[in-house]
Amino acid sequence: MSRTKVVPIPVMGRHNVNAYLLLGRRPVIVDAGTPGSGRRIHDQVAAHGVDPADVSLIIVTHGHIDHFGSAAELRRLTGAPVAGHIADLGPFRAGRVREPYLPTGPMGRLMARNKNLHMRVEPFEPDVIVTGETALEDFGITARIMPTPGHTAGSVSVLTEQGDLVAGDLVANSFFGLVRGRPANPPFHDDPLRNLDSLRTMLDLNPTRLHVGHGTPLEPDRVRRWAAREHRRLSRLEAAGRLRARTADETV
Strands across the sheet with 82-85, in order? Predict the structure, then answer.
């Protein structure tokens, strides 16, 4: 059994927006970055000694444009198929996120005003449609795609055999990755309670480290302590009728 190595690919800043390169028998890319970043990801893959034409799969963790913005471009550059969850087909096919954004705090409320988050990007149709837990051995890595809904309906993470969890926006570093190693919500969640449930389900699998879309890797025990505090906070908001979540019939 070949060990899967997780290599961060910075897309914006040093850690603000990350894609990932998973190295096993064949390379796999997780997330496709912001619009126009396909060439940057392609070139960073090559800089790690990997022929981009050898990439077996591009996994998009969810339907926000900082994660699927260059999926179509990266598919053209590598020739690799793209995988995405069926519940986020709407954004993928439209090239737009579900709106309005539902901020998790002040950072999200500020970012929601950024016109770049409301733009339309090049749409794509996933070649591999994920509907449940999906083994990746056929693509050359000992890992599984794990549905982790809540951030968006179709959010997924990737769990390697060694316990590395490539978690997308299941959790983030504080202030959009600026405060390293400190767990926090990303700026937006479609369903905060459902996302927290997905996070705790993944933590129950005892990952060794969480590799996130915004920031540096997080230690599981620190995330567990944060998740317990977050559960209490969300429970208070829910009891007060102040917790907002996107309904199932809200579409792009």
Answer: 5-12, 17-23, 27-30, 57-59, 82-85, 128-130
